[in-house]
Design brief:
Layout (H helix, E strand, L loop, with lengths): L18 H35 L6 E4 L4 E7 L3 E7 L2 E6 L3 E5 L3 H4 L1
Antiparallel strand pairs: 1-2, 1-5, 2-3, 3-4
Length: 108
């Protein structure tokens, strides 16, 4: 009757083999997670921080909310954008998403 079913054999002395071998899979998952998710995110954060620190008066920028304007004033934490003639908006420096090439606002 046991033609299709193999006999289950108990291992002697509990778990056999190296206990470090059981940790190999979770450690491998953590390493893969680091290189695929954590490391690229940290790299993007460093690039964004460098870009925010390099902001200067007169730069044309896009914010996270989609506002496009020219920087007229810079503070430690805030920047003032001129979005149209005599219309200025105060934003956080961290909300600047990208710096546009000079003359981009005229094309819009």
């Amino acid at each position: 009757m046991s033609f299709f079913i193999s006999d289950a054999l108990a291992q002697e002395g509990g778990a056999s083999g190296d206990p470090l071998l059981g940790l190999l899979f979770p450690i491998g998952l953590v390493v893969i997670l680091y290189f695929l998710m954590i490391r690229p995110q940290v790299k993007r954060q460093k690039e964004h921080k460098k870009m925010v620190e390099a902001l200067a008066k007169g730069d044309e920028v896009t914010t996270v909310g989609g506002i496009v304007g020219r920087i007229t004033e810079l503070g430690d934490n805030f920047a003032e954008l001129e979005v149209a003639d005599d219309i200025k908006v105060k934003i956080r420096r961290q909300s600047v998403e990208s710096v546009l090439p000079k003359g981009s606002i005229k094309e819009l």
